[in-house]
Amino acid sequence: MEDSTASSTDYFNLKNMKHIVDALDRNQKVFPNILHCIGNTPLVKLSNIPKEEGLECDLYVKCEFLNPGGSVKDRIAYRMVLDAEERGILKLGKSVIIEPTSGNTGIGLALASAVRGYRCIIVLPEKMSDEKVNTLMALGAEIIRTPTEAPSESPESNISVAKRLVTEIPDAVLLDQYNNVCNPLAHYDTTAEEILWSLDDDIDMVVITTGTCGTVSGVAHKIKERCPKCIIVGVDPYGSILAQPEELNTSDVQLYEVEGIGYDFLPRVLDRSVVDRWVKTDDSGSLPMARKLIQKEGLLCGGSSGAAVAGAVQAAKTLERGQRCVVLLPDSIRNYMTKLISDQWMEARGFQATPRKEHLWWWDKPINVGMLQEPTSISSTTTLSEALATLRTTGKALLTVVDDKGSIRGVFTADDARRRLANFPGSHAEELAKFIVKKYYKVNLSDEPSLGAISRLLDISPYVVVVKTESTIERAVGVLTSEDILRFIALDGKQVNGN
């Protein structure tokens, strides 16, 4: 294993650091390969959203989702690779690049690896979209998934697993975006320069979402040097601890749907001293705003871009007519075609109302216990062979997995077990916890969900688990499939016609 991170006694004295990547020639007609197309993304003035939100200032967006790999992370991935090659840490045809990521840095590194000929292993949490995984695999990267809920210090986290892999795989290199000075330096040299060039060094506010924090740190340092009046706003989701003052981070949010921003630790590349103001955002504001950016402004961007603009709407209300606010849009729609772009996915999470279909007599009818298949539950301590035997004897398509208090912890299906064994390291001798699906579609019986809402969920899932909350215990009370909906429509429809 080689340590790829650059060291500096004054880590953020970026002005004196060696520049490896020059700014792109804006008049270049032909590029030697796709990596040379990274950067030089357009700055676009928004027209409709500022009016709707009552903003007086001019609102511009930096379209980083138009980078070749679909995100702002292309910049740092290429920069880290070039730096490691120059310092002899990466050796062409020999080194193996390993990186923990929420996906976009991984795509950038896989892109660079494909062009320059490296083996690439990406470690990312299960929360991240299938589109990211498929893109990584198409680029030739190898994928390791880790539990979303694992904290950064856990041996099961993507960071810990990546660190372990570099000790086990010969010639492995961890470029380490959280600690690598090339992360903020790439933005100091290029992203910030492009923003300043576009607006002739006259900017009043820049709004940037924070993940590894290299973007906000690098951009802010350069802009503060050239445009001291500019206010730097960091956007951090509830459930993350990056913002200041610390009381802003107080929240009961454990998991959030927006990908690529927020952390439960402070990356070394974060320099809070250059952030003038922090704004916290949540899924209910960020994801609908992403949809609005697509529908109202024609910008095919992702959820973190929605968070950025949602944060900017809060912060930019202090700006007056004629002042300029720039918002960085980190990634693209491509990564979320089965998530925030899906109406059913948004409805399942309460970010969008289920449409009414008055011509369908059954659509608005609430479900009741009589419609439900009674679930078969197994203990979370059950072995895999016992779980498979239960599936055979009951003839059920799935089992609900419960803890010692009877609270549901996930579901188990033969198909998911097969997929786990076929696509991830492991064997049938492992404990059941390795095969439990924790991300599944569910509704609470107390909310009186309608058959229409269930039907929408069944468009994107083979089953829906119905739960009921009793005190702090969430019990599974039933499972619904398309067959159950059809059976009810047929039976109750006869009663309706008979009446």
Radius of gyration over alpha carbons?
A: 25 Å
- Residue-averaged pLDDT: 89
Q: SS-based structural class? A: alpha/beta
| Biggest sheet character | 6 strands, mixed
Which strand order does the major sheet show? 2-3-11-8-9-10
Strand content: 15-25%
**Poorly predicted sequence stretches spanning 5 or more consecutive residues:** 6-24
Distinct helical segment count? 14
Q: Percent of residues in helical segments?
A: 25-40%
Distance between the termini: 76 Å
Overall morphology: globular
Extended strand count? 17
Give the oligomer, counting copies of the same chain as homo and different chains as hetero: single chain
Catalytic activity: L-homocysteine + L-serine = L,L-cystathionine + H2O
Pfam families: CBS, PALP
InterPro entries: CBS_dom, CBS_dom_sf, Cys_Synth/Cystath_Beta-Synth, Cysta_beta_synth, P-phosphate_BS, TrpB-like_PALP, TrpB-like_PALP_sf
Organism: Pieris brassicae (White butterfly)
What does this structure look like?
This protein is α/β, with parallel strands linked by helices and 499 residues long. Helix content is 32%, strand content 17%. The protein has 14 helices and 17 strands. The chain has helices at 48-52, 73-86, 104-116, 130-138, 158-168, 182-198, 214-226, 283-297, 303-315, 343-348, 384-394, 414-423, 451-458, 482-498, and strands spanning 2-3, 43-45, 58-63, 96-100, 119-125, 142-146, 172-174, 205-209, 231-237, 277-281, 324-329, 377-379, 399-402, 408-412, 442-444, 464-470, 473-480. The strands form four sheets. Strands 2-3-11-8-9-10 form a six-stranded mixed sheet, with helices on both faces. A five-stranded parallel sheet has the order 1-7-4-5-6, with helices on both faces. Strands 12-13-14 form a three-stranded mixed sheet. Helix 6 (182-198) packs across helix 7 and helix 8 packs across helix 9 (303-315).
